[in-house]
Structures are given as C-alpha cells and as structure tokens.
Specification:
heterodimer; A: 267 residues; mainly alpha; 2 domains; two-stranded antiparallel ribbon; 11 helices; disordered N terminus; B: 285 residues; alpha/beta; Rossmann fold; six-stranded mixed β-sheet; four-stranded antiparallel β-sheet; 20% strand
Amino acid sequence: MLNDITMGQYYPVDSPVHRLDPRIKLVDTLLFIVAVFLAQSFVGYLLLFGFLYGVTRLARVPFRMLLKGLKPLRIILILTFLLNLFFTPGEKTLVAFWGIRITLEALRQAAFYSLRLAFLVAGTSLLTLTTSPVALSDGIELLLSPLKKIHFPVHELAMMMTIALRFIPTLLEETDKIMKAQMARGADFESGNLIARAKAMVPLLVPLFVSAFRKAGDLAMAMESRCYHGGEGRTRMRVLKLTRNDGLALGAMLLLIALVVLEGVLL
Amino acid sequence: MQQDMRILLEDVSYTYEEAAAPALSHVSASVRPGEFVAVLGHNGSGKSTMAKLLNALYIPTEGNVIVCGYDTRKEELVWEIRRRAGMIFQNPDNQIVATVVKEDVAFGLENLGVPTDEMLPRVESALAAVRMSQYADSAPHMLSGGQKQRIAVAGILAMEPSIIIADEATAMLDPSGQREVLETLHALNRQKGITVVWITHFMEEAATADRVLVVSDGEMVLTGTPREVFDQVDRLRELHLDVPPMTALAADLRAAGLPVQPGILTVEDMAKEVDRLLCPSKSAT
C-alpha cells in the first residue's frame, strides 16, 4: 500500500559507502550540496554526475534507485525547466512562436536549474539509501552535540527521531488494519473527488491518532520502567569511530569541490 | 549486610485520580526471593495496578510498597527499584524502543550508564538466555509477538534484575507465543533464581506458579499454592474465575459422592486419582 516512499529508504547491502561514519556522510552530503551550487557549466555538472555515479557504484546501490527518488519530483522538475525556459531573458533567439521567444541563455538556465534540483535530491537520497535511519540519527546527534552547550535538546531530538523511525512500520501496519476494518464495513477510500476522499480519511485518522497516543503512553511507561531519565549520564552501546576510509571520503568530496571551482574559473 | 530481596506490600491502597473507588484497597502480601508468584484476576480487578506499584510507576495512596528493601515512596530510590525489578508489559509493540533488537536490549544499560565495552557481552548473554541470539541484528517489527516479548525480557535481563514483573505479558499473544514467554520466565526463575511476579487472567498460567494470589475488585481474596487455591472451586466460581477443568471435575465428582482427594490440577493428577479409586490395592506402590 504505502510502500513507494523511496526518499529515506535504506538499501541494505554491505559496501564501503555503507560502512562510512554517518557523521562523515552527513558532512559529505552538505559539501555535495555546496558543490552543486558552485557548478556553473556543463563540465561542472558532468563532474558532479561522474562523482554521484561512481559513489552509487561503490555503494552497490542500483542507479535506478536514485532515479526513483526523483520520480515524485518530476512535476516540479518539469515546471522549473519550463518556467526558466520561457521567462529567462536572453540575446540569442533559438525559436520564436506565438510571441514567445526561447533564447539560448534561457535553455541553458532551464537545464542548469533542473539539473541542480535533480542533483540535490539524488545526492541526499544517496545518503539515506546508504545510511540506516538509526545511524543517521546517531550521526545527527553527534554532529549537533556541541549545541548542548546552548541547551539545545540534542539528545531528546535524537531520541524522538529513533522512536519515530521505530514506530513507522508499526503505525503503517495499524493503518492497514484500520483501513481493512473500515473497508469491511463499507468504507470507500478510493472513489470520489478530492474532498470526498479526504472526508473518507476521517474514520481512518481518528482511530489511528487514538492508537498512536495510547502507544505513546505505553512506551513512555515502558521507557521509564527501564530507567530512562533523559540524556544525562547515559552511555551508548554503539560508539562511532573514524577510520581511514572516512578520511578518504572527506578528501574525495573536498577534491570534487576544488575541481568544480577550478573548472568554473578556468573554463 | 545481606540485602532484603523480598517484595512487601503493606496494607496498600491505590486510587486513580478522579476515580471514586480505589483500584486496590488494603492489600498486604509478600513475595520471597526466588519465588514464582502468579497474580490472578479479572480485567479491572486491580492486578495491573499492583504491577505498576511494584515498579514505582505508581506510588500507593496508602500503605507502603517495599521492593528489595527500598520504599517506592522515596523518589531518589526509584531508579534503584526499577533496576532490580524489571517489568514486561502487555503490548509487545509498545515497549520496544530501538529499531534493532540488540540495541533495544541495550536500552536499559545505556540508561544506567554502563560502560560501552561491558554492554555488548551483557546484551549477548541476555539474548542467549531468552534464546534469541540469532535475531540480534533483526528489526523488532519483523518478529512474532512471542519473540518480541522475549526481547523485552532480554532487555530487562541485561540490567541484571532480581525480580521480573510480567504484567499480562501473554494477553496479546497466540498460544505458542504464550507458552514461549511463560517457559522463558520459568527457566529464568529456575536457573538464575530470579523472582517472578506473573500477572495474568489465564488460570492455566497461574497454575504453573509456586504461589497464586487472587485479586478481585481491588482486594486480595485468596492466596496459596495453586492446589490450595484452585481447590476452592465454589469460591472461584463465585468470583467468576475459571477453574482448571480437572479440578472442576474433581469437585463435581466429590459433590456426587465420590471420595476424590483435593489438590487435583492436571489430567495426570486426575488419571492417578481415578487409578487409585479403581484399584485401591495398587496405590500402595
């Protein structure tokens, strides 16, 4: 039913990329985003594409998984392309019809903008494809831990993320169960216009919310009975250690940025 | 000094906020270390309230609850009590915190601040004790209900408690899952001497305990060994509690005038008794 959410879906294989420290992967993803914004020419984008493709191969993730991540974005991508194509002013006219003029500059900008968007999404979905949600929330917690000094609730945030991730499958199962129960009583979730369908969701959402709140209450009690009392004095079973590969990954990303910048300056 | 490992309830009453009647009223009981005690009662009898009192999740309105020598009233002792008296809840889904089995087992240890290098061995031995080692890296939602409850047991076990309280831990499981969990707790009780407080409404489960406490309408109405308790067939029926079929049969036979001995729980007991009645000479052997 609700299985086609590729963004944030972990692709569980063992690869050097999967084994990288989540902190490094987070930083690398941020740097990749920077690189995407620095790229100013087709050669730059080619470099980015090469890098992305190489990492995907190294991660043993099928490249079509990345493309699948772009699918929900296709309308925005097309819109970005068309808007830029029609409304960017330029000198060299390529074609003109019905008073609309498409220029070379417009084509160039339209291509760049949509490519940029596609790269941003593909790059971040590569992070979530190769990093388990747990590792990701660990990485975020550790990266944000300096913020504890200004009393930012880093641990609480990470705990909330972990619990949310833990309960996604449980709540999906629950949704499925309630849906079937309501369908057995004649509820119709599939036909009608948008408003009718939204209305049909009410008998689904109300029990789901009630159950989620009950679960939250139960879980809080179970956590308390297992001595949970916040982040203070807490230790962790999994300790992240940086390895040589993590250094290499960071180095490779910096090199990519350098190349993109150099290429922009030279060409 | 040897620590007092008993659980003591001293004239305990508990009233929920805004409730008219107390959920538990004037209950006194004690559980010896190493004992397997079943608390039997209907829904709403107050047995779950009792479980939560033992873990300092609730503080008694009146009376005292002493766990391992610690009074649950003393706020600073709460963590000591919860470390020594672990609790398993009814819904297997709602007590698993982490997304990987072994990390969930480690959750309690992380909370206690156990050093990282000590953690993994403790998690592994806890998983081995509930025979779930091969699932250490699985996702909890892929497991069966019985397996999830065993993970919950392992999570408690890793904290090396002296008492495990199971609050209707089998109520949401299928029969094979129920057996799995009950057997696991019995094994831990036998092998590690862990005190078990098994809260249930299943008479069959209560019958496997060393001692049964029957709770009804917030009061403790019967206590004793399963044989002693279940022999009071009329009293149990009055309380609308199930009676083991063989015990009920024995009572009916007795009522019909047959000299059936008290203390019959299982089919084996009944077979022996019938044998004894039919051939009195053989019973000497």
